[in-house]
EAL and modified HD-GYP domain-containing signal transduction protein
Amino acid sequence: MDVFVARQPIFTKSQKLFAYELLFRDSYENTCTCDDGDQATSEVICNSFFAIGMDVLTGGKRAFVNFTENLIKKEIPLLLPKEVVVIEILETVEPTAELIKACEKLKQAGYIVALDDFVFHPKFMPLLDIADIIKVDFLTTIGHDRKKIMGSVGGRSIKFLAEKVESRADFEQAVKLGYSYFQGYFFSKPLVLKGKSVPSSKINQLRVLRVLQELDKENFNFNAIEKFIMYDLALSYQLLRFINSAAFCLTNEISSVKHALVLMGKNEIVKWVSLIVMRTVGDNKTDGILVTSLVRAKFSELLAERVGFKGRESELFMMGMFSLIDVFIGRPLKDIMAELPISEEIKSALLGEYNDFGKIYHLVLSYERAQWETFITCAADLGIEEKTIPDDYQKAVAWADEVCAL
């Protein structure tokens, strides 16, 4: 499934690239067609981190991301790496006590906070104590107002960003007034970038809802949450792509879905799931791929003890689960593997290497495809009695059917 994000550069007064603002798009048409701010921001975050990749979008520069009042109160910004994003508070936000408290938490956590399309009003004074950057719309203000806004912040060390700068005259005036950053058509229109996202299915929606139900329990259980996610290819992939982002600074490979969940913790899981819920879902064309992936995952897991890999069942399950991820997404498997923080054994096996995991993977594929000569060779290499395999495969099929019927 194709996904899109637009980026517009933000420059310093010496016209050096400072950052990008990321904007919602649903096609190469360079306009925003979404009226739901929560959905638009959720799509931008998911498409940027899960599908396209922040390294591609920003090349290491910061990313300004718009946030609604609802998303700020839910602490969704805290899910993103403070070294990467600038939290841009929309002009429609009401500075309630609850909102101010959430913004103070962002500030204390080390985030850069920007106020979008700022127009001074006394009610915004608490936000001025939090803001690092104020954006002023040069299309809706004139020279005197552009200067007056700067004086309204008092002695606070806030930097100003002139947005919608349409001409050299606007730019030169902004520089003269003391603005630090500049954005607008004078420099560049937003550029739309495309990526590939995992299609969502009804099974995906049910899993997400069940994760939320489990998280709502007073004594929630990581094992229960793991089961809801690990059986859904879309959720598993999005989880691993996200935890491999700069937000978590991973130093080790992920051995299982539970491992990823424990690293995230309950609060981060809630925020991550909230993002997934807010996205548009409903593609059922991938159900067949999901069933096959589940069968392979369970089949590989059942073989673990037979081949001397007791204790590594979760890794073998992950190997089978991601065996069709390239078909699911529509991207080269090698590229996808490079983005996931899973073991080199799993990656190399899925890419065709005949290592210890590769032998199991080849056995799974050969049995599934009734390639009996290859199956016999793999079974011999693994020291497995051939007669034990049919029962394991039937168990895997029955289990996958049961999971998909939930």
Q: What stands out?
A: The chain has 19 helices and nine strands. The two ends are 25 Å apart (CA to CA).
